[in-house]
Amino acid sequence: MLLAIMLACIPIADSSLLPGFLETKPAFADDDDGGDDDGGRSGASSRNSDPSIGSRRSSGRNLFRGLRNRFLPRAQRSGAARPYRAQAPQPPLPVHTTDEIVATGLTAQQIDQLTAYGFVVLDHAEIPLLVSEVVKLRKPSSMSLEAARDRIRTFGPPSIADFNHFYRPEQEAIPECSGPHCDATNLVGWPIRVTGPTNCGGDVIVGLIDTAINADHATFAKGQVEIVRLVDEELPQSGRQHGTAVAALLVGAADSSTPGLMPGAKLIAVDTFQSAARQDDRSDVYELIRAMDLLASRGAHVINMSLSGPQNMLLERLVTEISDRNVVIVAAAGNKGPKADPAYPAAYPQVIAVTAVDRNKRVYRRAGRGKHIDLAAPGVEIWTAASVSGARLKTGTSFAAPFVTAAAALLRSSGQGMTSAQVHETLTKSAQDLGDLGKDPTFGWGLLNASTLCAAKM
Question: Residue ranges of region Disordered (predicted)?
Fold first, then answer.
């Protein structure tokens, strides 16, 4: 009211002042928490939707600032010196649970011995791929975590024990594009016949291990999407932004605003994540192992894991077993920067590790690097589904991995008969070389080339 009276009392020579002051901006997405899982704020992409917005200043806003400075005390005026308040540094996110060990290959007698030492069996599950149970144990309070792990390891093969490590979705980037025209499929020569009437993808099952997914999003209305939540239902559900975006890239409806690469494929999405403090969506290795075993038993041809964490002996064992059964595993290289340690499961040799590039084939600045990198794919400014409705832009290696997953699914679809090793070799040999000649730690073998995948099938 006061602002209206002040404006009414001031002669305005230029009528363009008020439209600039009252300007509104369009919105493209509706996310469930008002924020973007890539570190951006809600509406970040919509603010950039008009190239002129953000490049011009509104005189109306300057007028308001001048009025405010006239009536407010000096200490509260814009431009007045403000005391510096340093933000307290956030403690690093935990790498593993503080009191749990995960083990497999233990006999009933060995478990009895451990309980006599003070270990407590928290949970256990049959893992057919390992022909054994995986057991989650709480260590005795008098024993360090390292000592507890080493105590179980004294049993020797075939038992394996390690910390209950955490793995997190790669969702730390900031979207920067200006609209849905930022289409990445042409960059890799994605064959139109996958979404067209011939549907060269055939009969294929894609597995996904990720956060929660909004199954009611319009992009999944006509698809074959099955969601399985392995985590205890009493635990807080993880955010739906990451999982929904990755799933839509894979199987979003061809006629929706966020068409997927394989709209005709069946997707089995396993939610192994829970929401912890500080908006920390994380899955422990116990749940990851169960999810991978479930997908292999359900006939998944390829598994997408847009997540990362530390090396773990049990995870490595299951990756080996699944690969030996010709299930292709694709994982994001991670967004911790070029000097970060290798991220897992991407760094295991049986896994196809995917880094991200922009539309100019430049590597994403925060992508992980190393000799384990296999392929590059579009992962900067990718248009995909928002968590509630509509769409928004995503950036990160998480959103590059689905391109390679979809390519592997095409090769593994009906009539291909390829092993996981042959899929790996076919994709890397056909890649467009980037960076140094041959394989390099930045781009791997180069940019995914999907232009001949349908031709190879037909």
Answer: 27-60
Task: Let me know if residue 6 belongs to a domain.
Answer: no
Residue 45 has pLDDT above 80, yes or no: no
Query: Distance between terminal CA atoms of the chain?
Result: 70
Of 111, 139, 165, the last residue of a domain is 165
Q: Which domain holds residue 407?
A: 168-457
CATH code of the domain containing 173 = 3.40.50.200
In this structure, the dihedral spanned by the alpha carbons of residues 191, 197, 203 and 207, taken in order and rounded to 10 degrees, is 60
Q: Indicate the SS3 state at residue 347.
A: coil
Helices 285-297 and 313-324, axial angle in degrees (round to 10): 10
Residue 259 sits in the same domain as residue 343: yes
Higher pLDDT, 452 or 178: 452
Q: Give residue-wise pLDDT tens across range 284-308.
A: 999 999 999 999 999 999 999 999 9
Q: What is the CATH number of the domain that holds 121?
A: 3.30.70
At 44, list the tokens. 């970040």
User: Distances from the Cα of 420 to the Cαs of 43, 190, 191, 277, 283, in angstroms?
Assistant: 41, 21, 21, 38, 25
Q: Secondary structure of 250-282 in the HEC alphabet?
A: HHCCCCCCCCCCCCCCEEEEEECCEEECCCEEE
Q: In what order do the strands lie in the sheet with 266-271?
A: 224-229, 266-271, 205-210, 302-305, 328-332, 352-357, 375-378
Q: Is residue 85 part of a domain?
A: no
Rounded distance, CA 284 to CA 232, Å? Answer: 12
Residue 222 neighbours by CB under 8 Å, 6+ apart: 253, 255, 263
Q: What is the pTM of this model?
A: 0.77
User: Cα 32 from chain centroid?
Assistant: 17
Report the catalytic residues. 210, 242, 398
| Tens-place pLDDT, residues 178-223 | 444 456 888 998 887 665 544 576 689 999 999 999 999 999 998 8
Q: Kindly report the average pLDDT of the chain as a whole number.
A: 81
Number of compact structural domains in the chain? 2
SS (H, E, C) 410-452: HHHCCCCCCCHHHHHHHHHHCCECCCCCCCECCCECCECCCCC
H or E segment to which residue 208 belongs: strand 205-210
Query: Across the strands, what pairs with 160?
Result: 104
